[in-house]
């Protein structure tokens, strides 16, 4: 099969699944060329083939549109499905490679108390939120989304709960699948399960593939929500060393898998929190191949997928998965609306278990936020919003790294984020991040101490900082104060 025939088949499959509905515009020739990594000539030949199949039609000076056809798909998430809205019309170099023990062993997890106390302190009045895990809400179009939500609430005096039982609102599911398709990723809407943020997606996915007492492999350092999920379900975590550029050490992971039984692996391949790296495609492919060799479920936390600093959206582990072992989790909380907490899972072969667990755990995800986000995605400029956010975060990352180099003592090193909004900072070894956290809090400054990102004291002299908030005199003064504290402790 030629490349243009394969592209045509992929687009036709997306149309048949309802990702693109009758009368809707598909990607422009130039955009399709960029997203699929093919020449414009290849795209034109693919579109011509689709026209000959009566799948799409060309409209002069407007683009290509899906033809209205008899027998359009009516499955979950397809165009014909009736959702509620259808009923009315390193500053001094990078941090050294994070090193878990040479012979990592499973350990019980208890980091939730530290994280909870840290998050509470971040909410203190007038505290500088350098330790916040959340992006600055001022960057989000929350007023516009609230307008949609208020309009929906006025239209519906009551809501039929049955409409949004798992897997979730059909139109939102379709919009999510379309978003993937527009970025060159083929996703079956039938696989998507809507959740209460990515946190629930991660918890449901882990619950679907492992049981209490099982061992789960995680990155080191790792995002503490991963450790929370393991802790909540009575499992044990085994930390695997993780490189600041390439991600989890695949050789170390292979040794762990050869030595003991591991029920699942949890990773953040794109813009990992706290390191900020983007795992190279070759490493992603090798990780999936390793998982397939051991029949190992991999839970992929891709919550920062839209916040890339490069020219193109990064690939996902899901794209390399041919056996349904990758449980892909994401949300809009980091890119569009943190308050609405809408996420989703693409659980592969475990979809039925995740849907059932969703029903048993929380029954449904709130309906109005689902429909409001679907309306925003359908009618407003999500890409324009994202371009602005990405540009801002990229500038902020450079600025914060420069300020740390200016204000912090020799021996301080920072990560080089490829996306997202957090910076991982290695301090001189004599500095204890919990002492620094307490001293900074007394000055009205919050930080994320390294203790939160591991079960051991591997990162006692590391901190995580948030650069999503606008730069101002208060932020600069806070960083200068932190630098002075670090210098004294060092």
From TrEMBL:
<comment type="similarity">
    <text>In the C-terminal section; belongs to the class-I pyridoxal-phosphate-dependent aminotransferase family.</text>
</comment>
<keyword id="KW-0663">Pyridoxal phosphate</keyword>
<feature type="region of interest" description="Disordered">
    <location>
        <begin position="74"/>
        <end position="104"/>
    </location>
</feature>
<keyword id="KW-0808">Transferase</keyword>
<dbReference type="GO" id="GO:0004400">
    <property type="term" value="F:histidinol-phosphate transaminase activity"/>
</dbReference>
<dbReference type="InterPro" id="IPR051446">
    <property type="entry name" value="HTH_trans_reg/aminotransferase"/>
</dbReference>
<dbReference type="InterPro" id="IPR000524">
    <property type="entry name" value="Tscrpt_reg_HTH_GntR"/>
</dbReference>
<keyword id="KW-0805">Transcription regulation</keyword>
<keyword id="KW-0804">Transcription</keyword>
<protein>
    <submittedName>
        <fullName>Histidinol-phosphate aminotransferase</fullName>
        <ecNumber>2.6.1.9</ecNumber>
    </submittedName>
</protein>
<dbReference type="InterPro" id="IPR015422">
    <property type="entry name" value="PyrdxlP-dep_Trfase_small"/>
</dbReference>
<dbReference type="InterPro" id="IPR004839">
    <property type="entry name" value="Aminotransferase_I/II_large"/>
</dbReference>
<dbReference type="InterPro" id="IPR036388">
    <property type="entry name" value="WH-like_DNA-bd_sf"/>
</dbReference>
<dbReference type="InterPro" id="IPR015421">
    <property type="entry name" value="PyrdxlP-dep_Trfase_major"/>
</dbReference>
<keyword id="KW-0238">DNA-binding</keyword>
<dbReference type="Pfam" id="PF00392">
    <property type="entry name" value="GntR"/>
</dbReference>
<dbReference type="InterPro" id="IPR015424">
    <property type="entry name" value="PyrdxlP-dep_Trfase"/>
</dbReference>
<dbReference type="Pfam" id="PF00155">
    <property type="entry name" value="Aminotran_1_2"/>
</dbReference>
<feature type="domain" description="HTH gntR-type">
    <location>
        <begin position="1"/>
        <end position="69"/>
    </location>
</feature>
<keyword id="KW-0032">Aminotransferase</keyword>
<dbReference type="InterPro" id="IPR036390">
    <property type="entry name" value="WH_DNA-bd_sf"/>
</dbReference>
